[in-house]
Amino acid sequence: MEIRVSTLQEMLTNAATLGAMSAVKKLDPVKDELKASEVRAWLGNDSKMSRKFDAMVRKGMIRGFKKGTSQNSPFYYSKVQIEAAFAAVRCQSLL
């Protein structure tokens, strides 16, 4: 299978972005966490991206977590996990 140069470049860019985000997560894990209410703003308030995010959560590609034990504790999501899910979908569409 032959991969076009532009496709390979985009895949490598996605990998580099994920690597940089993973390094930030290791250095300061709190900067990697987003509340569920903050995710839409981080995605740029784009309704298409929000729908894709919701679909990825339903499929289990992105998993939220709670910090507290209370029923009202907010869900948090990892920026790295969100970006990795979007990168996987982008790479799949390139092949």
Entry keywords:
95 residues, mainly alpha
In short:
With 95 residues, this protein is mainly α. It has helices at 5-27, 36-42, 47-59, 79-94, and strands at 33-35, 65-66, 75-78.
Description:
- The chain has 95 residues and is mainly alpha-helical.
- Helix content is 62%, strand content 9%.
- The chain is built from four helices and three strands.
- Strands 1-3-2 form a three-stranded antiparallel sheet.
- Helix 1 (5-27) packs antiparallel against helix 4.
- The chain is globular, with a radius of gyration of 15 Å.
- The mean pLDDT is 86.
The rounded Rg comes to 15 Å
Number of helical runs?
4
Mean pLDDT metric: 86
In spatial order, strands of the major sheet run 1-3-2
Helix content: 55-70%
* N-to-C series of helices and strands: HEHHEEH
Write the layout of secondary structure elements.
Layout: H1 5-27, E1 33-35, H2 36-42, H3 47-59, E2 65-66, E3 75-78, H4 79-94
Helix pairs in contact: 1-4
